[in-house]
Request: fold
Amino acid sequence: MTQTIKSKVLVVGGGPGGYVAAIRCGQLGLDTVLVEADRLGGTCLIRGCIPSKAVIHAAGQFEAMARAAQAPRFGITLDTAPRVDFAATTQWKETIVDRLNGGVRALLARAKVRVLSGWGTFSDAKTCKVATAAGEIVIVAEHVILATGSTPVELPFLKFGGRVISSTDLLSLQALPKRLVVVGAGYIGLELGIALRKLGVEVSIVEAQSQILPLYDAKLVEPVRRWLDRHAVAVYVGAKVLGLNSPGDAVEAETQQGDKLTLPADRVLVTVGRQPLTHGWGLEAMAVAMDGCFVKIDDRCATSTSNVWAIGDLVGEPMLAHKASAQGEMVAEIIAGKRRRFDVRAIPAICFTEPEIVSVGQDLNAAGGDATIVGVFPLQANGRALSMDAGDDGGFVRVIARKSDHLVLGIQAVGQHVSELSGEFATAIEMGAVLEDIAGTIHAHPSLGEAFHEAVLKSLGHAIHI
Ligand code: FAD
Ligand code: NAD
Reply:
């Protein structure tokens, strides 16, 4: 028999958008039901951010040991080259996922959120049927938060299956391929392609645009490009993938100049973007307006249907976990009666490549020119970077400010370990810092943060260490 339950708030999707929204609703005393078909944590926790960063970390450890086995480093020698058992790496990664998944479950329970495990399907904007293991449950809610996330884009001429895999498949592999072809040099392709190269896999990358990581300005991407060259990763930019060859063991592509490429591959990782998950759960029954392929929202994440809210990857770029969470938290507060708008100045972005890239606010593609001043400080001149052997890969910190009043418009960095600077960069921009605010802030020594301080001093014309 179908059971019907009523709730103040129904959240569909337990990723970083949905579960954060549900926890915040619970904290605010709103009777909340969360529906998740898979494991709690969503793409980010189960098959995205966390698993990929775990593999990237393991790959870094392996590479450091492999280098020490080749030649002494820092006075340390390894007598034997390391070996990797990728099934064990995948298993270790799963223990981290399990731990965090359990944490999310516990946090939801503490916030008194009722979690239903099963696929939700709407019959109208406020009524959702969930197929749970214990039978069908219908939820009738006053407010609905849609947080169904996204799925990988499939290329019609390179469909997933066999040796053609998505990031989800790669993160579950039990053995490393000998040769990997990556299609799409965006976030996922480069993060995972570089990790597998560190683990000894032969990697080739095919990118349709004229540069890798086309989202970032060319100067920021240059150190990553150099790492790929130094590590014999074949990169084909401006190239068109045609499909697999007829035996199915190589990717065929065409360069900008019209030359044909045949790239042997044991696995082909297709990472050409992600698309919002808008089908298969009754969105069409909710009379919600669309903005292209995304659900259309206003600056409160309200859809065109009253009391239906949408957040995260479902509503557009940037498809980042922290954006989804920030929207989720905001919507919960709006439902609870607070006045909130999503009017952030900047959403930080980190690319966990080698070296890492951080960008907050406007970069040289967006700002630059006569109306701005730019300060750049190389990590080569930063004591902390050198003491971590992280100063010689062309990394730098850059600040871009408005010339007229020195308002900081953008801050970027490329280099090892710079991801941890993202919080300071975002705080500066969010608080409307001017260059003099940063210049007047004492930065601890030795730290990478000093490179930010020095980039600002440089923009003001009086850097100390360069
Ligand atoms: P999702 O996390 O996709 O969650 C949606 C959930 O809804 C899923 O669990 C799904 O099962 C569930 N669901 C959907 N429909 C239904 C239904 N009808 N009924 C029940 N349940 C349903 N972002 C970063 O910020 N940093 C990173 O380092 C990063 N790394 C990434 C690495 C990889 C390999 C990938 C693939 C993504 C990465 N991302 C990263 C992106 C990040 O994962 C997403 O931006 C984020 O997960 C979006 O959160 P969300 O809540 O909108 O959706
Ligand atoms: P992406 O948008 O970052 O990169 C896709 C790349 O594929 C682009 O460079 C694009 O030009 C290229 N491309 C598209 N069609 C192609 C084709 N036919 N042949 C060759 N190249 C082609 O997408 P992604 O790497 O799949 O990642 C999806 C999203 O996940 C990202 O946009 C990001 O929001 C999120 N993500 C974030 C992080 C992070 O924050 N560190 C990490 C991974 C994923």
Observations:
- The mean pLDDT is 97.
- The chain has three domains: 3-47+91-152+275-335, 164-271, 349-460.
- The first helix runs from residue 18 to 27.
